[in-house]
Amino acid sequence: MSKTPNIFVRSLRELKSTRCLAITALLIAINVTLDLLGLSIKLPPNLRIGFGFLCNASIGMLFGPVVGMMAGVCTDVLGYFAGNLSMGAYFPGYTLTAVVGGLIWGLWLYPRKVTVWRAIGAKTCINLFCNICLNTLWLTVTGGKAMSVLLVTRVPKNLILLPLEIVLVYFGMKLVNRIYGALPNGKAATEIEN
């Protein structure tokens, strides 16, 4: 048996750190605020790239899949209560999507050096499993439209936005890693031992 704990155990141990809790709470608040303000890059004809996913990716990269999954739950529930009450009833499927997203970010980015290939892999998995599969399923369940009808528009949209989102993830995570490493007693993800 290896003396090195697996990635889930390491991530769970991060929750003992006040720094982890404070930074995670800050990133959750930033994510909810960005969503409430609607800050995004709008591309013609009706495409947009939000920035909230960078907060989720940062949490997964810094603190791992367990913290990423818990942050996904908090972000979804707090986001709903902060501004989405007017949109109708709460649906737990989207919370499940947020949990899966936190898991994927943590598995791809924690505690390793951020590379272009890791950014491509993580964002591709998020777009495929979370955005195309799960969210389309939840839209089918809540909206009553056939999944095949929704996929016709959602697949091309996600494929068009994917390269831009990968660039944002790569450079965003490099910046977050540099800032986190500059904090007192902060270790950048590239300095953490495997």
Q: What is the compact description of this entry?
A:
The protein is 74% helix and 4% strand. The protein contains six helices and two strands. It is globular and about 50 Å long.
3D structure, described in words:
The protein has 194 residues and is mainly alpha-helical. It is 74% helix and 4% strand. The chain is built from 6 helices and 2 strands; from the N terminus they run H-H-E-E-H-H-H-H. It has a two-stranded antiparallel ribbon with strand order 1-2. Strand 1 and strand 2 (47-50) form a beta hairpin. The chain is globular and about 50 Å long. It starts with 6 loop residues before the first helix and ends in a 12-residue tail after the last helix. Residues 190-194 have low confidence and may be disordered.
Task: Spell out the key features of this protein.
single chain; 194 residues; 6 helices; 2 strands; 74% helix
